[in-house]
Amino acid sequence: MLKPALARGQLRCVGATTIDEYRKYVERDAALARRFQPVPVGEPSISATLAILRGLRERYELHHGVRIADAALVAAAENTARYVSDRFLPDKAIDVVDEAAARLRVQHESTPEPVERARRAITLKRIERTAIAKDLAAGGDGTGSETRARLEQHLRDLDEDLAHLEEVLAKLTARWERERTRLTRIQLKQTELDRARRELEQSQRDGRLERAGELLYSVIPRLTAEIREATAAAAEAGARGSLVGDYVTARDINEVIARSTGIPVADLERGERQRLLELADRLGERVRGQGPAVRRVADAVCASRAGLAPPDRPVATFLFLGPTGVGKTALAQALADELFGHSSASPSVGDEDDEGDGALPSAGPSAEASLANDRLIRIDMSEFSEPHSISRLIGSPPGYIGHDEGGMLTERVRRAPYSVVLLDEIEKAAPEARHVLLPLLDAGRLTDGRGRTVDFRNTVVVMTSNIGAGAVVGPGVTGGAAGPGAETPEERRHREQATREVALRQLRSRFSPEFINRIDGVVVFRALTPVELDAILQDRVEALNQRLARRWPGGVSQPAPGGDAPAAGAAGGGLVPIAGDGDASSASHHHHHHHRSEGDIRLVIAPDARERIVQAAAAVNQGAYGARPLLRMVDRLLNRPLARLVLSGAVRHGTVDIALVEGTDDWVRWTQTPPGGAGPERELCRVRIRSDEDDSFDDEEDTDVVLGDQQQYHMPDSSEWHTGGQGDGGDGEGGSRPAGRPPTASGF
User: Fold this and answer.
1) Can you list the positions of beta strands (E) in 592-743?
2) What pLDDT does 569 receive?
3) Which site in 64, 225, 252, 342 is 20 to 30 Å from 532, CA atoms measured?
4) pLDDT, position 53
5) Which domain covers residue 453, as residue numbers?
6) 544: CATH
């Protein structure tokens, strides 16, 4: 139908389509394609996009009834170009500005938060006043004179609070109405100005020059001046603080981008230069004992972000070599946190996984922590050991089952283009699977089974392998401790150089040259010394103390006396987290913003006990397992006993000291002194120091944690500090002590 009209010149047509659709529908029809002149339109630059946004600003201001700051347009052009990779400018920048303006307009129609808070406070005070008034009106129900006087005084205090809150609410409401009136007046003026401009265009086309002159030289200048004066007055009032925002700011733009990409707003606003300069130090705080590896990773990332690396490749590609438990996966997780989002209270670790080391759960995972986890795309390459498994990685080709589902790697990167891709145990993948990754490493792109090209240019690709692990673990791996026969720094340097050469030689024998040649850096992780294991132990203890402070701020509430069942509605046998006044919002506040107080439970391990724990962990298979034995010992020595002590009520607040039992080197004792020294030291339990790999003990016959099962705990005050039960100083009659167990104090 179109071709005859186009051939006769009866129809003038301008079409718009994508390149793929042009090839599919137009180019295959030569007669139709001949009637059109193709005009390729590329993506505009950031500066051109900014000019487009400035041209559209007035239209969007009029449509939404808000003002848009120029800084917001700059943020929209720059940040969408950088962080939104699956769409093109200027479309994605215009959409972000449109959404931010719509959100601000919705806020205009809603009650401001200060007004809403004042209304809620008044409602709560009135409910409380009504309840107290009912109690006083009932009278004679056992209410003593002192209690009645106290309730009457509280009622008078509530009346004063209500009067004050109602006065505050009245002022806030009046201020809100003034601001809404001011904004409405500006919006009406803007609408009138837009109507005048449209009338001017129509008058010029119709030849009504007198009306056009009146609009051009009288009406439009007057309206423009009135809008300018009203806007200046609103800006002056806003500088003193306003309840209703009238400007779309750069932060509003960043919040919209953060919701669509998952990148926290703080990272969008924080200076990129300062964050990169501090990257090595921040990674070193998270991963202990791998200074050279951390510096090499940080240097490569900084070079890429500074624009010195090829722009058509991933940000960086690394191959981490080394034994298990030395920090390969931990460094990848830390890199994801620092570059693409921060998890809350992430402990410093030297292991590879943060695998459930908490005996007491936190109040719940934060949104930022989940975002950080989303930014680490972890794929176990041992699942792709067969050539046919490649389809699971990039998606099945057309005609095969699962074609529409996409691949494990390509789909996740397409949804989160700013992330760290961790390919774990790459040596276990089939050679065909590694060959599929070559375009990713070389050109920063990968085509999935559906023919879509996935952009990897904003990812950091980390591959891990245990190749050369046998070379890293050898004589002297436990060096670094003080004392006779300890390995000197020079000896360690020579040993690490020799193990690196062996590891690289084994790497070249396993991987093809074209694969190795596309990797930015091969990083060999070194074995951990006792000094570094001790730092990891201290980090884990501090992380446990932070979890205790968040979970039990101010201490643990008293369990039901005498071991009785808790009252109806009580949770966890009478043990409930104490958080402010007990409501959900207060608990959430403490979870995120708790500051340690004297009442918090805090563990302190003596240096001699730490040294013995580290020695026991380092001795497991001559250090071949890295920090993992230490983490399992932390679970055995700290998490499990602490869980029993807290849930039983033996520990509720204050500092718990952990030290070696005198005359032994395989037992630690947990003791606690009442606050202010008001009472004798109390022993809580004793735990044997041994690793899970030590099979010389039988758990059924030799329980490590020595606790009195018959003890009845209660909250001590200044006049008493004991554990109850069978009395102080005896072994008690609650159970026999296994042969060979050290004597215990306080009935344990």
Assistant:
1) 601-605, 654-660, 667-672, 682-688
2) 34
3) 342
4) 94
5) 270-345+367-467
6) 1.10.8.60
Query: Pairing between strand 667-672 and 682-688?
Result: antiparallel
What pLDDT was estimated at residue 402?
65
Residue 93's pLDDT is what? Answer: 93
Query: Which residues, in sequence order, are CB contacts of 725 under 8 Å at separation 6+?
Result: 708, 710, 711, 712, 732, 734, 747
Does residue 258 belong to any structural domain of this protein? no
Question: Are 658 and 669 contacting, i.e. CB atoms less than 8 angstroms apart?
Answer: yes
User: Tell me, what's the pLDDT at 302?
Assistant: 84
Return d(Cα 203, Cα 745) in angstroms, integer.
Answer: 100
Same domain for 647 and 703? Answer: yes
Please answer whether residues 377 and 333 qualify as being in contact, where contact means their C-beta atoms are separated by less than 8 angstroms.
no
Same domain assignment for residues 412 and 542 = no
* pLDDT value of residue 454: 85
Q: Which residues, given as ranges, of the chain have pLDDT below 70?
A: 139-144, 234-243, 262-272, 341-374, 398-399, 401-404, 468-487, 553-599, 621-624, 652, 674-679, 691-748
What pLDDT sits at residue 198? Answer: 87
Specify the DSSP element, H or E, that contains 209.
helix 209-214
Judge contact between 622 and 550, C-beta under 8 A: no
Dist. CA 708–CA 736, nearest whole Å: 10
Does residue 223 contact residue 196 with C-beta atoms inside 8 Å? yes
Q: Which two tokens stand for residue 532?
A: 């570094």
Write out pLDDT tens, residues 249-294: 888 898 898 888 766 666 655 556 777 788 888 888 888 878 888 8
Domain boundary among 239, 255, 289: 239
Domain assignment present for 424? yes
The reply to whether 73 falls in a domain is no
CA geometry: angle 146, 149, 153, nearest 5 deg: 140
| pLDDT, position 96 | 93
Q: Are residues 602 and 704 in the same domain?
A: yes
Q: Do 458 and 548 belong to one domain?
A: no
Say yes or no: 456 and 333 in one domain. Answer: yes
Cα(32)–Cα(391) distance, rounded to whole angstroms? 39
Residue 456 φ/ψ, nearest 5 degrees: -110, 10
Q: Which of 67, 103, 99, 66 is nearest to 84 (CA)?
A: 99
Instruction: Give me the amino acid identity at 617.
Output: A
In 3D space, the residue among 523, 524, 526 whose CA is nearest the CA of residue 480 turns out to be 526
Q: What residues contact residue 552 under an 8 Å CB cut-off, 6+ apart?
A: 360, 577, 578, 600, 601, 646
d(CA 426, CA 434): 8
The closest of 404, 347, 400, 340 to 374, measured between CA atoms, is 340
The enclosing domain of 220 has a CATH number of 3.40.50.300
Q: Which residues contact 575 (CB under 8 A, 6 or more apart)?
A: 556, 557, 559, 646, 647, 649
CA distances from 390 to 45, 344, 395, 396, 465 (A): 37, 36, 8, 8, 19
* Within-domain flag for 478: no
pLDDT tens, 615-640?
Answer: 888 777 666 677 888 888 888 888 88
**What is the C-alpha separation between 66 and 57, in angstroms, rounded?**
10
| Distance in angstroms (rounded) separating the CA atoms of residues 679 and 318 | 58
422 and 551 share a domain?
no
289 near 626, Cβ under 8 Å? Answer: no
Regarding whether 678 and 625 lie in a shared domain, the answer is yes
Same domain, 461 and 581: no
d(CA 318, CA 683): 50
State the total domains in the chain: 4
d(CA 512, CA 431) in angstroms, rounded, equals 9
**Of the residues 239, 255, 278, which one is the last residue of a structural domain?**
239
Helix 46-64 and helix 91-109, axial crossing angle in degrees, nearest 10 = 30
